[in-house]
Amino acid sequence: MFTKSKLVIAVASACAFAGVAHADVVVKLGQVSPMSGQIAHLGKDNEAGAILAIEDANAKKIKIGGQVVKFELVSEDDAADPKTATVVAQKLVDAGVKGVVGHLNSGTSIPASKIYNDAGIPQISPSATNPKYTLQGFKTTFRVVANDVQQGGAMGKFAIQELKAKNVAIIDDRTAYGQGLADEVEKAVKAAGGKVVAREYGTDKTTDWMAILTSVKAKKPDVVLYGGMDATAGPLLQQMKRLGINAGFVVGDGACTPAMIQLAGDGMSKNAYCTEAGVPRSMMPQGKNFEKRFKAKFGKEIQIYAPYEYDAMTAIITAMQQANSTDPKAYLPKLAAIKLSGVTGPIAFDKNGDIKGGAVTVKQFDGKEWKDVKVVR
């Protein structure tokens, strides 16, 4: 027989149990990008894409395993630094995330990928383009953009075939991304019949390019091709003008941004081109609507990869739905075989985890902004 105090405790316990039974299941999903440093604007752009994807998923009250799931974003800053990347990757594993979208850079994505693989946690990069990232034999590693074999090939061929360059100079920032892209550019230039008259490099912190450019100027290149991010490409292009180097300029996706235009200042001209690992937003099935929603929520324009971050996060959540489980072991096979109509287009992966049918867009500065020139597949 219950006393009054025991009855109160029993009722309270029953109510507490009932509350737990009906509470949403919280599932943590990680996002990593450089939220500080020279390319923080790109990292925050990526994070914004993940925020939208999580909000959209939660609005749908998705049920997995018979219970409504509430997705929680755990965002980390790797500062575009490989060592920091491994630290925050382990931090996410320890926090119990069930999947990760990131990292932004190839140089951070590659070392972090081993940590996620060892933990059995799927990782999708929305922007890492170095081929090595998906060639390590990890079943947990994916990307939703074209790789540098495709992008470097497009840059090199464009310089020789479209810009009619005979002699080119190639400069990179010595990161896994920049150097990897430059290596592929060099192969493409030579394959197209061009000559590499200079191969120079700085670092991902270099803003004074004068010594390198003085050497490059003496080689009289028709086009300068650069592998690196906008924070270093902007000063490079501005200093080219200062030295009177009137060559064409072609840069990869890391500088195919509005920020590049600001950083380069009066160095920008119609001789400046960039390539983007994906299709133009005008060609994305849901590109215009995504742009509208993005600007309404965040009060700013998309830099580059927010739509790809959105699709990567959505792919993970969709795979969980298909597997009816948030356990990485259960949903990983569904992710590997996924067929999703994303904001950026069809999302499906090959045996290595690379996006199928990856495209590269060539853009030209028109005096105000980057304008689409052609799409290469």
From TrEMBL:
Family, as annotated: Belongs to the leucine-binding protein family.
Pfam name, any one: Peripla_BP_6
PANTHER family: AMINO ACID BINDING PROTEIN (PTHR47151:SF2), LEU/ILE/VAL-BINDING ABC TRANSPORTER SUBUNIT (PTHR47151)
Residues covered by the Leucine-binding protein domain: 27-353
Residues forming coiled coils: none
Record-linked Gene3D superfamilies: 3.40.50.2300
Organism: Leeia speluncae
Name this protein carries in UniProt: Branched-chain amino acid ABC transporter substrate-binding protein
